[in-house]
Amino acid sequence: MPFTMSQTSLPVFETGLHALLAVLDKAAAHIAAKKIDPPVLVGWRLAPDMFALGRQVQVACDQAKNGSARLAGVEPPKFDDTEATLDQFRERITKTVAYLKTLDTKAIDSSSEREITFPLGPSKGQMKGADYLNHFVLPNFYFHLTAAYIAVRNFGVEVGKRDFLGAIPLKRI
Amino acid sequence: MPFTMSQTSLPVFETGLHALLAVLDKAAAHIAAKKIDPPVLVGWRLAPDMFALGRQVQVACDQAKNGSARLAGVEPPKFDDTEATLDQFRERITKTVAYLKTLDTKAIDSSSEREITFPLGPSKGQMKGADYLNHFVLPNFYFHLTAAYIAVRNFGVEVGKRDFLGAIPLKRI
């Protein structure tokens, strides 16, 4: 079986986002048990100039959605950043995973040499498809996924590496 | 050009580890300027039950070294975890990058269907090569790389996303 770009993107994002959903579930149980006001959780930051937890969730979702769409050669839909409650952030994840399932895997697989142009701050960035996936989309996705996970752990929720990895195709022998 | 497993591992690890080296340089300058005792930096933790910064660096290096070696079908060398100073942690990174350069890219490229067996806590894990890279090595590598970066940022060092991404093949247009 060849190694493909769709295999290195879609199921990776889906697994990571589902894991994040489960981490947020544990966080919800934690604040309910401790009677913590929910906005305190979604507003939690690891440094004053870092995004709050809720924003980390939005950006992790967008890296997966926008990165995959651009590799598939289609314009990614814009999801408005209006989420405020934990349930809404959960819904953002579910909506993102549902969108990933609509993308054409063959179009993603054939994009390794295609020049991908994408918004980058006030200007634009351009990279070949394979480089865009390996050196931009994946590191950015994992950055925000990890930041969200660490924010939850730093908040005091009992989560471990297995929660971060999620349902990976691993056989324990 | 086909999409290959060596391309999705070796240069990805090298770029990420070099970026981490530069982040540690900024951290060294920060503690020198603020006259902070160096062990305070390498011992910094984002949560009481998370690894300290120095250990995050060691584990990020080991994910890259062990993951790549196993995909190439060779036994990874064991690097003793004896580092204590920032210079020694820097050396661990350099040594890891040098080791990555010795690996056979063709052996890595042909490993997508090969069953990889690896130590996992008290037992062992087994995954097909492509799954091992996509769902174990890359997420674990990025987890510890991001944790190290966030620990430095949380410590008060001025670093941003560009420092995390490092020297990626990006054209700004």
Tally of individual helices of chain A: 7
Q: Distance N terminus to C terminus of chain A?
A: 24 Å
Give start-end ranges of low-pLDDT stretches of chain A: none
Give the percentage of residues in beta strands of chain A.
Answer: 5-15%
**Gross morphology of chain A:** globular
The chain-level structural class of chain A is mainly alpha
Determine the most extensive contact between two protein chains.
Answer: A-B, 51 and 51 residues
Give the proportion of residues in helices of chain A.
Answer: 55-70%
Tell me about the biggest sheet of chain A?
2 strands, antiparallel
| Secondary structure: number of strands of chain A | 3
Radius of gyration of chain A: 17 Å
Oligomer: homodimer
Overall pLDDT of chain A: 97
Strands ordered across the widest β-sheet of chain A: 1-2
Which features would summarize this protein structure in a list?
173 residues; mainly alpha; two-stranded antiparallel sheet; 7 helices
